């Protein structure tokens, strides 16, 4: 019943018991390691170095030493490096996908999609690198000339989560390198091997030593995070993860006044109006809610369905969810894999039990699946949701869709915005004026209109309120890794020589 892991085409992409610092594969100075397990089987995949502040400092020093030389490269040179890295990611995308499924659990088809998406950030930012323009500004003082140039901010610390082991890292390293920065990336404790495979490909692409450093830690994560945020050498921190951890990192970063970009928790509303196309709305809800079994920060979390379409939507949606096949990520036909660990299962189950206790009705699912393993949960649909249920205010991060009924546009916008976070929001309607009103009224950084999937390297990704600040991807993505330097040339009003 338990799946076997397919062999990698290139076994040298699996780097166990090492991290990548200053162009070399190194162990933790202490010799300590932690185990990385396959969430489908609970079996150990391998060990990774349990790095501490001392190891982290070496990585920061390597990035600092590489910076003066790397910043001097032209945009075109950096573009070619990123392009070579992109090409290698495409050539090896099947192996990257195998690693993602192995350590993250998502079905292989999803992992292949992520491997492509991850590589596309390198392609996108390789094309941005030569086009990092400044401005020429007309001065208000006669004889003065004002120009701006864009400079790389310096050494950047990048901290990423396990839910997209490849894409979260490429989305940060791509723009950092395009801008001319060097980086220290802390890989997720649950999924370090995908990050190291990317590092191996960067090495083959000829990225100079010290430009990219990838370190790992599990128990020592707080210690590593503290050094990255307080080191005066690090000029910027980019973090994707939970809002509480973001707040802690922000507090720590204030000691050295770092530039920050944070992509934190979401609680995405998904609204279906009576005039929506039912099939489009159901398909959008399936894609948004159940992608990666609900373990993405832009997943639909609260589904608001207008009363006129509510029963039809609930029936059609539940029927689709019944068709899902849950299992190990490499098994043919499996649509949804395990959750990342048993703590995730406990939270999801608690949300379902709480909703049931308060009057919600489970239409599909609602149970753990011990016959498959400790980390599996049935994809679940609950109708009759109310605002006093935990699911209404907390991010579930699991395969549970709660359906709320609403009557008016004004009411649903109020409900949708009634949260401290604001990352993504989705709604379905065919009325162009309503679309305009609602898109502008939602307090989120990203809106999906008549679609449940909004991620694209060309689109600026990020939130408002307690979902953070800064944008990743798109033409705006490099800006967070740059400083704007103004240069004023004075005394140009002398007459021309006769």
Automatic annotation (TrEMBL):
Catalytic residue positions: 263
Domain of life: Eukaryota
Record keyword Transcription regulation present: no
Gene3D superfamilies linked: Aldehyde Dehydrogenase, Chain A, domain 1, Aldehyde Dehydrogenase, Chain A, domain 2
Family annotation (InterPro entries): Ald_DH/histidinol_DH (IPR016161), Ald_DH_C (IPR016163), Ald_DH_CS_CYS (IPR016160), Ald_DH_CS_GLU (IPR029510), Ald_DH_N (IPR016162), Aldehyde_DH_dom (IPR015590), Aldehyde_DH_Superfamily (IPR050740), Succ_semiAld_DH (IPR010102)
EC number(s) recorded for this UniProt protein: 1.2.1.16
Top EC class for this record: oxidoreductase
Biological or metabolic pathway of the protein: Amino-acid degradation; 4-aminobutanoate degradation
Domain Aldehyde dehydrogenase span(s) in chain numbering: 25-487
UniProt GO BP: gamma-aminobutyric acid catabolic process
Keywords: Oxidoreductase
PROSITE patterns linked: ALDEHYDE_DEHYDR_CYS, ALDEHYDE_DEHYDR_GLU
Catalytic reaction list: succinate semialdehyde + NAD(+) + H2O = succinate + NADH + 2 H(+); succinate semialdehyde + NADP(+) + H2O = succinate + NADPH + 2 H(+)
Short name of one Pfam family: Aldedh
Cellular component, GO annotation: cytoplasm
GO molecular function: succinate-semialdehyde dehydrogenase (NAD+) activity; succinate-semialdehyde dehydrogenase (NADP+) activity
NCBIfam families xref list: SSADH
Family in the record: Belongs to the aldehyde dehydrogenase family.
Name assigned to this protein: Succinate-semialdehyde dehydrogenase
């Amino acid at each position: 019943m338990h799946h076997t892991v397919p062999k990698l085409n290139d076994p040298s992409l699996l780097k166990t018991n090492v991290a990548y610092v200053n162009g070399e594969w190194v162990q933790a100075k202490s010799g300590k390691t932690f185990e990385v397990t396959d969430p489908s089987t609970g079996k150990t995949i391998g060990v990774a170095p349990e790095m501490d502040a001392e190891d982290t400092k070496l990585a920061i020093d390597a990035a600092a030493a590489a910076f003066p030389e790397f910043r001097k490269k032209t945009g075109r040179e950096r573009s070619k490096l990123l392009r070579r890295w992109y090409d290698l990611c495409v050539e090896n995308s099947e192996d990257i996908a195998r690693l993602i499924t192995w350590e993250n659990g998502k079905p292989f088809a999803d992992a292949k999609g992520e491997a492509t998406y991850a590589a596309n950030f390198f392609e996108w930012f390789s094309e941005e690198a030569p086009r990092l323009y400044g401005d020429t500004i007309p001065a208000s003082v006669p004889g003065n000339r004002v120009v701006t140039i864009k400079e790389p901010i310096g050494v950047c610390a990048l901290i990423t989560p396990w839910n997209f082991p490849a894409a979260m890292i490429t989305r940060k390293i791509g723009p950092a390198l395009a801008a001319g920065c060097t980086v220290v990336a802390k890989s997720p404790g649950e999924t370090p091997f995908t990050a190291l495979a990317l590092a191996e490909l960067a090495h083959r692409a000829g990225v100079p030593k010290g430009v990219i450093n990838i370190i790992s830690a599990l128990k020592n994560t707080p210690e590593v995070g503290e050094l990255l945020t307080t080191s005066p050498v690090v000029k910027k921190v980019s973090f994707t993860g939970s809002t509480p951890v973001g707040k802690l990192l922000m507090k720590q970063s204030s000691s050295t006044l770092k530039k920050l970009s944070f992509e934190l928790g979401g609680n995405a509303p998904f609204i279906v109006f009576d005039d929506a196309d039912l099939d489009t709305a159901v398909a959008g809800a399936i894609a948004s809610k159940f992608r990666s079994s609900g373990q993405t920060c832009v997943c639909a979390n609260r589904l608001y369905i207008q009363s006129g379409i509510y029963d039809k939507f609930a029936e059609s949606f539940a029927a689709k969810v019944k068709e899902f096949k849950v299992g190990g990520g490499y098994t043919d036909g499996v649509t949804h894999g395990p959750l990342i660990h048993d703590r995730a299962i406990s939270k999801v189950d608690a949300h379902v039990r709480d909703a049931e206790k308060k009057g919600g009705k489970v239409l599909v699912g609602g149970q753990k699946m011990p016959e498959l393993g400790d980390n599996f949960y049935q994809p679940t649909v609950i109708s009759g949701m109310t605002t006093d249920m935990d699911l209404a205010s907390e991010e579930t991060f699991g395969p549970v869709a709660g359906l709320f009924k609403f009557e008016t546009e004004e009411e649903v916008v109020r409900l949708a915005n009634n949260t401290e976070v604001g990352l993504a929001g989705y709604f379905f309607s065919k009325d162009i004026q309503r679309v305009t009103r609602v898109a502008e009224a939602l307090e989120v950084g990203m809106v999906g209109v008549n679609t449940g999937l909004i991620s694209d390297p060309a689109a600026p990704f990020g939130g408002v309120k307690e979902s953070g600040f800064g944008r990743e991807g798109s033409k705006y993505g490099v800006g967070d890794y740059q400083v704007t330097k103004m240069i004023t040339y004075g005394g140009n009003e002398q007459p021309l020589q006769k």
